[in-house]
Every structure is written in C-alpha cells, then in structure tokens.
Design brief:
By secondary structure, the chain is of the alpha/beta class. The chain is built from eleven helices and seven strands. A five-stranded parallel sheet has the order 2-1-3-4-5, sandwiched between helices. A two-stranded antiparallel sheet has the order 6-7.
Length: about 250
C-alpha cells in the first residue's frame, strides 16, 4: 500500500485521501499539508492522522517517502534487449539431430498410447500448456489442461494400472514446486511424464520419462521470467504433428 509492504486499515475518509494521492502522485509530492487537506476536503489534523498510519511522524516525512516511492515507479522502466534470433536458429539446427528426433518420436508414442493426457504449466508456461492441450485435442485426441495445479488436487485419481496416464509438464526453470508435486503424485499412479524445460539437468527433467530441453538464454525483467518461448512453441507443434502422423499411419 503506497510505500508500505503490507495493507493497513483505513476509514472511509482516509480511503478517499488515499485514492486522491494515488491518482495524483506527482502533484501531491509537491503539495503543502493545507493544499492536500483542501483538495481532499478534510482538515490538516486528518491528514496528519493519515500520515501516522503510514508510519510517518508527520506530513514532511510522508511527502519525502511518497516522492521516493513515485521515483521508484519510474526506475522500474528498465530497458531490455531486442529479440535475439541466434539462440532460436541454433535450436532449429539442433532439431535435425537424431537425438532430438528420437525424443520427439518417443514422446509422441507415449502420447498416443495414453488414455488420459494432461498438460500443466505455471505463469507463461501455463499459457503454452493451454495451447498444447488445444493443439493435441485438435490433431490427436482429447487432452486436458490443468489451469491451477496448486488448487487442482489429484487425491481421487483412480489407481488403475490399465489406464495409461501421461502428464506433459512445461517449466522454464524445471524447478517449480507445485509441478514437481504433481509429477510425484502421478508417478505413484504409474503415469508417464513428458517435460519441456530449459535445462536437461533440472529436477522436473530428471523425473520425466522423456525430457525435451531447449537451452535458451534465461532472461528476467525484474521478478518476471521473460525467457523466449519460441522453442516451446516449436516443440509442442512438432509433438502434436508427429503424433497425428503416427495415428494416421496406424
């Protein structure tokens, strides 16, 4: 809440003050207490009580902290490098190598042999997980996407060895805890795991029946992982098309 790392309880009048400040950060940082009181139709003493709720001894300290907070918002507009196509071109070369083709074929065969196919991912990987389930459903057979692995328990999954289950897990880091828990639970039900990760040495990769790693340069913007997903798109499409061709051949 503003420059505080947690929410505080505000009265209706104080909420009006807060909303005015949020909507006029640049101006409020230069206002005197009387000017802010007039703008929000309250008394100066009400403004002071408001400031103390934000752990400030008075309005002067509040205004300084507000100015610093406003400046920090502008500092977050960091520059990022343009898209670098070279790693993707290198990845495309690798797709012609026998080891990559063997993994695509092995993964496609597992998908074709499965009675139930689940896709799962978190964050950006969740978006491509949905795309993967849509693509596979369109070209091969019905696949389900797990929208929220943290709130989608598998406690009632029937332990039927005759039912073949496959989980396709997407994770850039390969270390997402909720997906690892999903994998461990499904492996207890004899499921096969196909994973798409940025590294073949990650935990998720090591737990998988087949792992397809794409080795892109890891790129972060503040706390957000913005690693390119071009290779993931290619792998998903290659899997679905390979499985479709094999299905038609059979």
């Amino acid at each position: 809440m503003l420059f505080l790392p947690y929410n505080i309880s505000l009265k209706n009048t104080e909420i009006d003050i807060y909303n005015y400040i949020i909507n006029n950060l640049n101006q409020v940082g230069l206002m005197r207490i009387r000017e802010l009181a007039d703008a929000t139709h309250v008394s100066s003493s009400t403004i002071l009580r408001f400031c103390r709720k934000f752990e400030c001894t008075g309005y002067a300290e509040f205004r300084l902290r507000l100015q610093a907070y406003n400046k920090s918002l502008g500092d977050h507009r960091l520059a990022i490098a343009p898209v670098d196509e070279f790693p993707f071109l290198e990845f495309l070369k690798h797709t012609h190598y026998p080891d990559f083709q063997e993994k695509i074929t092995a993964a496609a065969n597992i998908l074709l042999e499965s009675d139930l196919v689940l896709f799962v991912g978190v964050g950006t990987s969740g978006i491509f997980s949905r795309y993967g389930s849509y693509l596979f459903s369109s070209l091969v057979s019905l696949a389900l996407n797990i929208e929220d692995p943290l709130n989608m328990p598998l406690y009632n999954l029937v332990d039927n060895r005759h039912q073949k289950i496959c989980l396709v897990a997407l994770s850039v880091s390969g270390e997402n805890e909720s997906i690892i828990n999903y994998i461990n639970h499904l492996k207890a039900h004899h499921a096969k795991i196909i994973s798409l990760t940025n590294s073949g040495n990650s935990t998720i990769a090591q737990l998988s029946s087949v792992n397809i790693a794409y080795y892109n340069n890891l790129e972060m913007y503040e706390d957000t992982n913005i690693t390119s997903q071009l290779a993931v798109t290619y792998i998903l499409e290659a899997l679905a098309r390979t499985a479709h061709q094999a299905k038609c051949s059979n």
